[in-house]
Amino acid sequence: MSTTTSTTTAPAWHDVTASATDRAEALLTELTLEEKIAQLFGVWVGASSEGGDVAPHQNDMDDVVDLDALLPNGLGQLTRPFGSAPVDPALGALSLLRSQRRIAASNRFGIPAVAHEECLAGFATWGATAYPVPLAWGASFNPGLIERMSHRIGSDMRSVGIHQGLAPVLDVVRDARWGRVEETIGEDPYLIGTIGTAYVRGLESAGIVATLKHFVGYSASKAGRNLAPVSVGPRELADVLLVPFEMVVRDGRPRSVMHSYTDVDGVPSAADESLLTGVLRDTWGFDGTVVADYFGIAFLKLLHGVAGSWGEAAALALTAGVDVELPTVKTFGAPLAEAVRSGDLPEAVIDRALRRVLRQKVELGLLDPDWDATPEALRGVDVDNAEGIRGTVDLDSAANRAVAREIAEQSIVLVSNDGTLPLAAPCRIAVVGPTTDDPFAVLGCYSFPAHVGVQHPDTSLGIELPTLLESLRTEFPEADIEYVPGTTIDGGETAGISAAVDAATRADVVIVALGDRAGLFGRGTSGEGCDVESLRLPGAQQDLLDAVLATSTPAVVTLLAGRPYALGSAVTGAGAIVQAFFAGEEGTAALAGILSGRVNPSGRLPVSIPASEGTQPSTYLAAPLARSNGVSSIDPTAAFAFGHGIGYTTFDWSAGQHGPDTVGVDGTATLGLRLRNTGDRSGTEIVQIYVHDPVASVVRPVQRLVGFQRVDLEPGESVELSIHVPADVTGFTGRNGARVVEPGEIVLALGASSTDLRITHSVQLSGDARVVGFDRSFHPSFNEIARSTS
């Protein structure tokens, strides 16, 4: 497989006893310029030509890849061998096996490629489990559960030969009109960093290279428009947008980062050396690879106008710190070689990126002398019998579905309830609304069926996607269920509303099923490139909702959506509101279980639900002047705030033993909490810690989440907690640009949401202002002192 100049001594890069750095260096010295560059790009030979783009400006990049010409120099990456078209998983693994053998046999040193895939809400391939979207992960407030999920995703990917996953998204929601809100974990940096760390740990523990994205600022685009410029100050960048990446780089140990498409204050992320090298590597010590978002390097010329040629774009990106061009070769091929030969780019810049790429290939075992392209799923089978292995790989196992169901159940938020829920076996249920009988209503835009499958309508979905209507009929087998759609998701039709009203009038209870359809670049109401002008429900859904609420029938509003929407009359007029964020293939069963009471809801809002359609951009991380006041006629107060959610039991909160009222700026404050389940069924309370800084040297948010803990209690059971909050979590970027913990009063609050604070404790931080850095404490600790049942 490998050709060397010696017949007696194994090449140094095959020495498994040597360090990854030494092995990479040994191979680097043997490569020609063209062979070096070949390791720095991917190819996308499986990109679909049937239908719309699956990446921005895909059709603008019409270069034909000639593999026969490329492969003798080697290849860095294979782009989405499973995720570009429907393929049986076993046959996909076989195809990748053959591709890897061809790649290794074609170059002088037998170097295979890294194969990467999307895995935002599960392995994005035909037949793989569709888990809830990241916004639902945030709603679960359960890092351990998300780590279990991502380990399963990574294990499935690794079993068929994939090495790298393009997830998680760590963008902080700043404007809910942005189409990619569904891909985020929420609007709070701490929640995102904690859940994101768990996701990365799970994926990496399965042997998959996790890729943080989009670094950085993408979600803060002007007017919530995809790829729009970003205008944020250095303090918002440091204290909001960068924080989740900082947390996950340190505590999750990911091996890759993807740059953002956007420019921040006129500097595109793909060409920002201060960001990709200064912050990421020099300050945070990240030593993995930086990969391009799809076509992002070419965009330096095509969209940003900071490069005059493809070679200039390549040189800008490499100099900034981008190591790998994805999804396919455009600028890192001949234009890059010419830039080096002309003297416009030192070859040392190529070598710097190559060291990282080769070191990662060493760590993945791709340069081991016994490397075998055969993935785990195909070991022990006859790989020459393609039809014989069809259907032998299961990427949607019962164990996967069990985890997907658990996340769905824990992430659905009971937003309001006047006692209508749980439904006590009603005789007549009317179900109206466009997400009632739509199997796609539970899927985000990066699920395979919504992302790629829609371009192949003659191919089956590959997984079971029961509609809400089907799940309701299963959940309430004795009920007479009448279904009337009323309108479509975004068509604006109103002719069917009167029939929906008639059905509601005849029923004991009406379920109004509303929400989104995920898609790409305007082909949906949520998803990449599906930005909106306001947070009014799409189409005529608000008209349908208002008409049904005007009847005297108790109404339950359910939402299967990718973003929060203003709900108008439902806030006060609905008997109950249940919010699900694209809850995956087990989502409708989970939602039906919450309506029946089989499941006690425990989700909390990772994003605020607005009271008005037009108050964006808005976030709970608001300074005093960003809140309701007497000098503006616009009230941005949310209808339901970040962290809010209720269940079918009640909890009593009381203060426990607090620590001293004064601690040092390098010390730890202690809060005591007694929590008791006062209801008649088991339930989960999510204890949230917020910090308020009454006087600071710069303007601060009124409340900011700094910790949380899920607490499960049986009826009558109580628990006493001692919560230790390091002063480090109060830090912020001061006037001189350094992150500082300032002396003075800090108010710590324990609450059920950002606006429902049950216990507060004022602490005086003493001493001189203290600068903290990358090694600072991020998390409080929760210690259980006692548990009892009354």
Automatic annotation (TrEMBL):
Domain called Fibronectin type III-like: residue spans: 685-754
Record-linked SUPFAM superfamilies: (Trans)glycosidases (SSF51445), Beta-D-glucan exohydrolase, C-terminal domain (SSF52279)
Keywords tagged on the record: Hydrolase
Entry annotated with the keyword Ribonucleoprotein: no
Database matches in Pfam families: Fn3-like, Glyco_hydro_3, Glyco_hydro_3_C
Biological processes, Gene Ontology terms: carbohydrate metabolic process
Membership in a protein family: Belongs to the glycosyl hydrolase 3 family.
Protein's name in the database: Glycosyl hydrolase
Origin species: Arthrobacter pityocampae
